[in-house]
Amino acid sequence: MKAILYCRVSTDKKTQETSLARQKQELISLATRYEFTVVEIIEEQASGYDIDRDGIFQLLDYFSANKADCLLIQDETRLGRGNTKIALFHQLHKLNISIYTAIQDGQLELSESDSMVLQIVGIVEEYQRRIHNTKIRRGMKKAIHEGYDPSKNLTHRNQAPGRERKTFPIEEVVKLRQKNLTFEEIANTLNGMGHSVSKATVHRRYQEHQEHQEHLNA
Asked: Which of 105, 111, 122, 123 is closest to 33 using CA atoms?
């Protein structure tokens, strides 16, 4: 397995620099015992409550790009503290990353309370996804009920990939607005048709279209 070694101290005091060196040596020894290939050793001085750390985003980039398979830390507090620790545990779990600690001399065993919190976070995230998908379906149903026919605008599904500017049928936005749909409902309807677009973008393009029409009619 390919491993990232992560070492952290909270201050830049001289004694903490010694702690960084000790953490690094312990993790190198741990990687050697498990015959891991060390891809990167990340050292930083920052608070464990702060999620905006260069080292954290560096290791997440490695894992997201499939350049490493596991994370080695001295103990779970080196990764983070409080809510930051839980958030990072959740993200690493989603990426299917194994965590090994020097203090446990093996794979991390979460406390019962941390495991419970992570289960709750996972459930909440799943229901957020379901709610989002339900809103898209409801927006589509309302649009169809108001007379919208999505089969009349499926041309974008056949476009070649690689378009930098996402496009969507502004004329359909105008029609849906005339049927008193909100911009959020219109955005959900367009997303259901395969147009990845936000409510803010729909509103902005609609405003631009209206201004252009007013200019033409002036």
From this structure: 105
Closest listed residue to residue 4, CA positions, set 100, 86, 104: 100
DSSP 66: T
Is residue 106 within 8 Å of residue 99, measured between CB atoms? no
Closest residue by Cα to residue 150 from 110, 182, 191: 191
Both structure tokens of 103: 């203090």
16 to 45, 73, 126, 172, 193: CA distances (angstroms):
9, 16, 40, 61, 55
Nearest in space to 54 (alpha carbons), one of 42, 66, 62:
42
Whether pTM > 0.85 for this model: the answer is: no
- The answer, yes or no, to whether residue 17 has pLDDT greater than 50, is yes
User: In terms of C-beta distances under 8 Å and separation of at least 24 residues, what long-range contacts does 22-26 make, across chains too?
Assistant: 23/74, 23/78, 23/102, 26/74, 26/102
- Residue 99: CB atoms within 10 A of its CB come to 20
- Give the residue numbers annotated as catalytic, written as ranges: 10
